[in-house]
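User: I'll paste a sequence; please echo it back and then give the predicted structure.

Assistant: Echoing your sequence first, then the prediction.
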Amino acid sequence: MKYHLFGNTGLRVSELCLGTMGFGTENGWGATEENSKAVFETFANAGGNFIDTANIYTSGTSEKFVGKFVGSDRDHFVVATKYGLKDRNGDPNFSGNHRKNMMRSVHESLKRLQTDYIDLLWLHIWDFTTSPDEILMGLNDLIHRGMVNYIGISDTPAWRVAQANTIAELRGWHKFAGLQVEYSLINRTAERDLLPMAKALNLSVTPWAPLAGGALTGKYLRGEKGRLPDASKRLNERNTVIAQTVVDAANEMGCAPSQVAIQWTRQRNQQVIPIIGATKAAQIEEALAGVEVIIPEKWIQKLNEVSSIELGFPHDFFLEPAVIDVSYGQTRDKLIF
């Protein structure tokens, strides 16, 4: 395992992140404590130190398991958790980005994790009701109290992330160092604004669902059924073609389809640290073995082509020959970018 500096910080994190949404069986699927520990130990023994969980995962069981597993060597691991999604139904202040929920949620996470600090706290999802100033001031208070070391933001429009980090920079506050988004060969919409924004602001990108809920392992091609509620949205003609191309590439390269799909997210000319979820040790072993896989350029091109999306305005507009002509006065080919 190699390590990356996380975004605009000096924090060293492993090149893969262990996702623990499946630690616990409260959602009707997932891993028992014994199986979760086997997954964790397999990841840790390979040099993995970056662990991702959240307050809402398996009703808090995921955090409890993570706390137990890292407890004997807490300072070695980079533990990331999240706040913002509900801890209770029917109570308006038990969810959201606001300060009251932030403070309550972090205190509860610390108890479940059996630790006195969180390495990386993610804002889980933008709530469209709380101002960036309130969020940033609250997060900075947590850092100053020693309860949180770094902050990241997940599932938020690019303009909001850019606005928040600009405010933070101007006011001397701590900035978001990472961006978590859905990103895979099946869902490349983050390439429109989110990924370019992250690259410009030096944010590490930690994509969730890099295997698109298992679709890119080829299991649906084999007739297997999806276990997650949203599996059906990944079952269509376009995604079947993409999955088959991944399988074809893997067969020629002599590796697993999952390794091709994960490595594709990493060969993107910017720092991407995929979140790898697993409920069995064999699954994480396969992902770990894939870090040495290099996808040949011919397959990168084929995968890009079969999964391509329309970037939309203004991105496609910028690529029109007439626009290039009037923007650069027939000198674009002479410029070094």
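The chain has a mean pLDDT of 96. The first strand starts at residue 3 and ends at 5.
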